Amino acid sequence: MSTGAEDLRRRTAELLAAHPPATTDRMDFLRARFDAGLAWVHFPEGLGGLDAPRALQAVVDAELAAAGAPDNNPRRIGIGLGMAAPTVLGFGTEEQKRRFLKPLWTGEEVWCQLFSEPGAGSDLAALATRAVREGDTWVVNGQKVWTSGAHKSRWAILIARTDPEAPKHRGITYFVCDMTDPGVDVRPLRQITGEAEFNEVFLTDVRIPDAHRLGEVGEGWKVAQTTLMNERVAIGGARIPREGGMIGVAAADWRERPELRTHDMHQRLLRLWVDSEVARLTGERLRQQLTKGQPGPEGSGMKLSFARLAQEISGWEVEFLGEDGLTYDDWTLRRPEGVDFTGREAGYRYLRAKGNSIEGGTSEVLLNIVAERVLGLPSEPRTDKDVAWKDLPR
Fold first, then answer.
1. How far apart are CA 278 and CA 242, in angstroms?
2. Which of 168, 346, 340, 320 is nearest to 249 (CA)?
3. CA separation for the pair 199, 190 (Å, rounded)
């Protein structure tokens, strides 16, 4: 018998009665919530869920918010929640699920993503980081780049080449990497904003036990597709209220600065407002589709829309504010825990939005995915598809 809304309300009330938020340690409450199956209700029982419909998570969240219960700071652990967790759930062993999912959800262990490389960004399957097996251990050497939050992470999802004789998509294996290994060197990568929210990561003789492999040897590209599809939904499909996010900030600027208004700026703002609302409703529909399974290529369309709108809205805001739009609070090198598109000044939003069309899959690559997998258009000719990775020009 499936779990319904009333049952979830009852379970939530029992959790709150046994662990009152006002007197319970935050981490103890989060652990208890996970054990009660109220972390992500659509996950299996024993893994933070109740095998309930995904849409019913909103019932639990509303009850807990009304009671003043703490959350798990999802912005801080977004990569773990949105990318690592669904991949571990889909491809991990029972032992891996029980080891990793609970501290991931509570935020006791932060995760990052070791995918992109200096020579393998848009063409991720061309990656050169090597993993060589020695008994029950894999020895990994290589370099990764654009790694958000690597400086604060305990674990990383990592793809590495295990068979250079195979074509590039078929010689990759997926691992969970311990970021505390002495062979992991994390270096800040300063961005146009002045901050170093990203990192480059050097891997030198990093030893990963085979027990930390996700999926079969050589099938890492298949596993990585689950990660990438969830990543694009996480970036482009976040739930926001009407006139929320960056368009809300731009609309507030318009209302608060009537002396700066022009007809042209008004027309452009109206178009951006409508486009933002269309994107918001499309994201809602996509999340409803997720209740029936894993995300598909449609998430790439949402991420494309998010990147375009973020850049256009931030550009409009800087232009509208004139001199005030050029101000910037602090250029000191900092290593923030996340991106704040609404709590900073217009200059920050304008600069940071430039990365939206690169991170999580470049817009050019996502356009191809939408064209081929959503619209059914012919694939681009690929001369490297059946060529061994070691024979490809680099």
1. 10
2. 346
3. 8
CA dist 206 → 7, 10, 221 (Å) = 47, 47, 21
Tens of pLDDT, residue by residue over 129-188, are: 999 999 999 999 999 999 999 999 999 999 999 999 999 999 999 999 999 999 999 999
- Specify the residue for token string 């036990």: 209
Q: Which residues contact 275 (CB under 8 A, 6 or more apart)?
A: 305, 309
The one-letter amino acid at 116 = S
Of 231, 298, 312, 317, the catalytic one is 231
DSSP 100-150: HHHHHHHTSS-EEEE--BTTBSSSGGG---EEEEETTEEEEEEEE---TTG
- Phi/psi at 259 (nearest 5 deg)? -70, -15
Tens-digit pLDDT profile for residues 314-343: 999 999 999 999 888 778 888 887 788 888
Neighbour-count burial for 62-91, b at 16+ CB within 10 Å, e otherwise: ebbeeeebeebeeeebbbbbbbbbbbbbeb
Buried b (16+ CB within 10 A) or exposed e, 312-326: bbbbbbbebbeeebe
Residue that is written with structure tokens 């009333």 in the block: 6
Instruction: Find where tokens 């659509």 sit.
Output: 42
Listing DSSP states for 346-375 in one string gives HHHHHHHGGGGGTTTS-HHHHHHHIIIIIS
Amino acid type, 263:
H
Separation between Cα atoms, residue 53 and residue 138, nearest integer Å = 38
14 is catalytic: no
Judge whether residue 1 has pLDDT over 50. Answer: no
Cα 162 from chain centroid (whole Å): 25
How would residue 359 be classed by pLDDT, with cut points 50, 70 and 90? Answer: confident
Sequence-distant (≥ 6) Cβ neighbours of residue 106 within 8 angstroms: 27, 30, 31, 34, 72
The CA distance from 30 to 103, in Å, is 10
**Max CA-CA distance within the chain?**
71
Local structure of residue 321 (DSSP, 8 states): H
Closest CA to 129 of 107, 145, 106: 145
pTM, two decimals, is 0.89
Q: What is the rounded distance in angstroms from the CA atom of residue 277 to the CA atom of residue 21?
A: 35
